[in-house]
Amino acid sequence: MTTYFVGDRPGAPLTIGVPAGWDTATVYLDGTPLDTTLDGTTVTATWPGNPFPTEGIYPVTVRVEGEATSQTLTTDAIVAEEPSGWHTVASARAEWTNSLSDVQLYTVLSVARAQVVTFLGLTEDDSVLLRHRQGQLMQARNVWNAAKTDPAQSADGELFVIRPYPLDRFIVEVLQPRSVVPAVG
Description:
By secondary structure, the chain is of the alpha+beta class.
């Protein structure tokens, strides 16, 4: 699905395909029912006044009902982001080609941002420097690689194992460059 920013109001209704044979359908955005119509295999939901009041992941589910049966279907969640100077799903995807879903990418970016902010002792009022954004993206890659790496299994089927280290020395060097003072001797 598409990512949005906090406060966005999508212009087009939310449209979801469902299997045939159902009489009614209700779309839920983060547990809140939306005005919904069912036309064969297409469910159309009208967005509420402010669908994304806060940053986060908004699960979308569809409850379909028939004569004697009902089923809840899950779809891709929607990500709502706050523009803040840090990487967004779109900006990270432009710099990092990967196969992560929007939710996975948002999650690793959020974790990496928290780690960079904590490491540097930043507050929400501090400016986000280019090196902070780059460190966030580098750390997001490390978080993702750490989550999918199993030290018990080798990466190449041989004896080589990739072990990513959180906030490794390369990321720390990006976040806090050392000034080099030439030695006179």
